[in-house]
Amino acid sequence: MAVVRRKKSEYLWIYIFLTPALVSLALFGIWPMVATGYFSFFRWNGIGWPSDFVGLKNYFELLKDPYFWNAFKNTFFYAFFQTLIKLPIALVLAVVLSETLMKAKSVYRALFFLPVILPTAVVSLDFKLILNPFTGPVNKLLTDLGIIDMPIDWFGMNLAMWTIIVVSTWQVTGRYMVYWLSGLQTVPRELYEAADIDGANSFQKFFYITLPSLKKFTMIIILLGFVYALRVFDYVKIMTDGGPAYRTDVVSTYIYRLAFESQATRLGYASAVAFFFAMVLLAIGITRTITNKG
Amino acid sequence: MGVSRRAKTIILQIVMTILVIIWILPIVWVVSTSFKTTTEMFMDPLSLIPKEFTWDNYVRAWKLANFSRYLLNTVIYSVVSTTIVLFISSMSGYVLGRYEFPGKKIIFITILATILMPSRYTFIPIFDLIRKLGLLNTLGGLILVSSGVNALYVMLFSGYFSTVPKSFEEAAIIEGATFPQIFFKIMLPLSKPVIGTVIIFHFVACWNDFFFPLILTLGNPNARTLGVGLYAFYGEFTTDWTGLAAALVISMIPILIVFLMFQKYFMRVMAGGIKG
């Protein structure tokens, strides 16, 4: 880019053009993180400005808070298994839907992708209807087929978390299929042609060419998928609200409860929980950035 | 070899067709349920074609449950927010991609760093700020929050503008065009591909967002978006399953239409997201 002589008015315009971005960056990019950290040192019911400084007290409480650690464990459980399920399914779909034997591939791709663009609230409530123990079609089908005698409570103590994982997996898998598809395009065609000449079958090609070629891409997509999953809120809030008996409570729903639904609003403590978990996510996010570059 | 290839194709095609039908069944089912009477829904939740086709559920959702308002709110919110985001990110992307000036590097790095910020968890100061501005339970507050600077969009614009040859604006400068004129008349129209990408990304993100609409608009039925409206509906009319089904269909039709219109473009844009 050629260096052009600058007039004073040009600098003025440059900063005018930047102003809206800088204001929103300050208010919604930097301030929330800084203020969450600041609020976390106070006891504060949300009225006015926090003034009752309590030092690290909120953090000491956090370390011993069984509800927090339950939510913490559930969040990672959810993210781990959702990632473990969605990525292989998405990969298989991507591989099959780039198979030269298949016809009308783009139609199949679009349909598998379809749930991705639906609002999470729509998906969550759609499945509340579908999995309803008494009026839902799934239990009806299983009863009619004689597979079960009693309707299954998909949102009960033992199944609720798995139900949330499966429903969210259904929604997001298409996104990861598209990611894998773009990864598959980077595998050199010649490798497959050479394997064809050697008489390799589809499975051999998958395990000896596709997977090894996508090693670095796989690391990126795993971390990305995991970090995305750790943000879970919508499905849990709508389908179970953390229940039954906190079995599906995740960190975001726990903070939401502390901030908006508990008897005494404890925004200072909620901020401590939020700041602590944000730091955990930040650490994972930085790891991801380094892996991306490495 | 030829025969076995064809056999493979047919088998693959059949298996994938069955799978894809099962995959989209939850969507088909809710559409079908939204046209059933309550009785039929209870008696026969499995059938996909209603025996007695009815519009009642839509009437209830549209009028009684306020979904006409929720739909309008969501359209306003998504359109206004997308427009604001488009201006903020194209203008800042333009100067960051094309000009050298003091403080450029630090601004760029700070914007990039926001990608790592887990904004879902640092909402308390945002809630507090919006409340103190008197914008709680208004669409304005929600629009303000959702229009924050987005690193991905700024990067797309700055990357694009940095590749446009200098000669494009030189002629305009000689003719005496001002800085904003050059941007709005020459540069911005050039960046149509990026504009399209940002519109799709952000419009869908707004339409589907649930978290910020929930904390910022739940308290006022007249400011709720579709997602929050659905959540409230489920809480208030728990047993009106067919009404809920109709409300669900109302909430997904517009975004489905947008998707079908730009389907190929959509998936290409999404695939680009992993590089961001």
Structure report:
The complex is a heterodimer of chains A (294) and B (276). Chain A is mostly helical. In chain A, 69% of the residues lie in helices and 1% in strands. Chain A has a domain at 77-248: Orthogonal Bundle (MetI-like fold), CATH 1.10.3720.10. By secondary structure, chain B is mainly α. Chain B has a domain at 66-236: Orthogonal Bundle (MetI-like fold). Chain B has helices at residues 2-33, 38-43, 56-64, 67-98, 104-113, 124-132, 139-146, 151-162, 167-174, 179-190, 192-208, 211-217, 226-236, 241-261, 263-272. In chain B, helix 4 (67-98) packs parallel to helix 7. The radius of gyration of chain B is 24 Å and the shape is globular. Classes of the chains: A mainly alpha (294), B mainly alpha (276). Chains A and B meet through helix 1, helix 4, helix 5, helix 6 and helix 7 of A and helix 1, helix 4, helix 5, helix 6 and helix 10 of B.
What features would you highlight for this structure?
heterodimer; A: 294 residues; mainly alpha; MetI-like fold; two-stranded antiparallel sheet; 2 strands; globular; B: 276 residues
**Ends apart, CA distance between termini of chain A:** 29 Å
Structural class of chain B: mainly alpha
Kindly state the number of beta strands of chain A.
Answer: 2
Please trace the helix and strand order of chain B, writing H or E for each element. Answer: HHHHHHHHHHHHHHH
Strand content of chain B: under 5%
